[in-house]
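Q: What structure does this chain adopt?
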Amino acid sequence: MSSSRIRALLGAPDIELAKREAVLYLNANFPSYNHLQGLDAKFCESEVSEAELASNVAQLASSSSTVDALIVKAKSSAHSYVETAQNLSLLRHSLSDELVDLTDGLSSSMSSEPGSSTLLEDIETLHRSLDDLQGVKGYAQVIQRALELSESSIQQIRALSPSAPITTSSVTQFQTLQAFVSNVADACSFVEDGAGKQDLHLVEFLRRVLERTWVDIKKSISMPLLDAAEQLKWPMTVDYANASTDQRTAFERAFLRLLQLQKVSEIISSPSGSRSEKDGIYPLEILVQPVALRFKYHFEGTRQTNRPDKPEWYFTHILNVAHDQRTFLEHVVQLLLNSADRQTINAWREFTRLLLPILTNKLRKTVPSLLPHPSLLAHTIYQALQFDAALRVEGFELDGTLCDTVPKRDGVAAEAWPGVCDIILGKKEWFDAWLDGEKRFADNQYHDIISAPDAWQIADDEPDDVVVGHDLKTTNSARRLKALIEQITDRYSPLPSFLHRTRFLLSMQIPLLEQYSSRLTSSLDAYETLSSALVRAVPGALGVSLGMKEDHSSTVNIEHGRFTSGVEGVQRLCKALLSSRFIETAMKVWGEDLFFLELWTEIKQRPALRAFAQANSALHPSTKQADDESHDTIFETLIARYEEVSRRSEDVIVQQVCAEIESSLKPHLSTTTSPNPGSSPKANDDFTLSQTLLAPIALLSTHLNYMRATLPPPILTSLYRRVVSRLAEHLLQRQILYRGSITAVEGRAIRAEHVLWVETCRATLLQAFGGSRSRVEAPWSRLTEAGTLVDVDGEVREKIANATFGGIDEDEWEDVIIEVVGSSELTREEVGRILRRRE
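A:
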């Protein structure tokens, strides 16, 4: 059936057409009345047809719904097929492109574009990747196995009953883990790469797993000990005698179980790597943990007790813990160690050693923040040194601990404890920062000392500062410099390393002493520069004068002569002399001190220290040779420099005093030694002392009085002898030896003048010299002898002349002179010249 027919049948019925067709049908079948007999039959047929039609209509409706469903399904299938066709078309194009790519991939890499690879090369790359993945899988399996063994090891320990002893059979799983790690390490041993042979990271990881497993095992066993210690009020002071029996039993059982575990670890060689400062006796390690927690709470948080300017607080805290628990450790813990065959371990020392990492960790965290603050850094280091000293006084040392040997450092024996301070001092950057801060502080102190208004005033005697064995006055600057040097010594003397001590000596003390010596030398240079050309040429001509400028304004001309003449000039020289002698004497005392003797011995014996010291010119040349037989001291060269300053100061003082007195004597000598033709005194004429002599004698008395009040007896005696010897020689030459004839009256006057000189000195210095007249008169002996010779007459003079000009030998001549004059200081030739001068 065509589609047009179907649409026609589906359309609405046409009534008019139906009527026309019915009329045509009746006309055709019933043309006359006679034909109506067959109407019933036709009617029946019509009913039958109607029934069939109704059935067909029903079937039509069913068919219509079926057709509609089929149409919908057909449309859906058509759309699906269209999409499939499109996808297939795209797939065809994609396959075509892949076919082209595969075709190109199968081509030689030589003919491909740069950067591309062939299919074969890609397959090889995939194979390598697959091998890598297989290796990763093997790594993962090894790690999985190690972790499983680690977990089983811990579970095996946890499964033990609290009363069960710990033996090697208690850690079989851990031993299996050990063997597994060892096998892996042997299999991997080393691997070659571009950088050479290196340990595989897998082996390192397995070793860390092994170590961590043992730590967990130890932690599992340690829990009962922590609980028992808490019952004993640990870490407070433990009153073990008043604890209950159950508490003591629980503590001792837990303590001994940890010792059993440590013994097992030694048998099976448990992993410890390189022993760290935290490793020790297991139960003591556990007892340190509560102390560390309390320390962290107080000194590593935000509490007021955590102050960078109060390091003594946490040092004192650890020191108190070690002190407070000593009785408990020595009387209880030590017995437990002894019962476990640990007699070689000192419980208190081992416990104290395990406390030290708490402080070292604190210092490692704190010191970097203190480097910009030298005062806080220095304070922290001093507190660390005091802590070390306090522990040593308590009796702490590494002997009797598990860490009884340490690497040898310069200046520290192999078996010695370097101290907590070694954490700071052992790091060059931190030590250099401290040394630099100390040097700046010392330099500032030195400049304050030199620049002080009273720096060069003679200091009052202070018993605490007097140099041992010497009653020596000095200036404030010298006294303060000595105190500064000793303060520096006190700061670095506790240092355990001789290298550090040497650096302090060479960087701080030696430069300060050199600077002070240079300052004294420069002051003498300035004094000589001002005095040599001015004072000697025109003595007393320099002073302060007022002048007028052209604009009628006043001016003040400061002339420096008054600073270099008279008592004031000698006073300045005495200050330089006393300062240099004081520091010189102090250095001699320091050089004999045990601290500096030990340091000097180490410098000479150790090549490294000797080479370091040879770069400094202020140390004694013997540092170039390790001469153990020499008896020099570390300050020998500096002492020689200060001795030179002292000698130079004395020379300038002698020169200054003698020059002023000689200059003052010129008018007197000019008057008394010049011939006067108009006068012919008789031998028995009286004489009077010249008024021109009073000024030089008064000047000498003034100088001697000042030196007596200022200088100590040894220096005063030396200067007095030198001044008087030169002055006496000057008078001897000018008054007697190198002048014309001398009359009897002049002889008596000369002798009287000499007596006056001696009496002036005796009146001034007799008490200072302990009442010894000979010490006062000895330097005048040549002059007094000459004065006696020019005053003798008669038989005495004849006897001396016969002995001098006769043929007797020297010994007989000296006996005659001593018999007549009382001394024989002049030579025979000088006596003869004096006798010839006398008329």
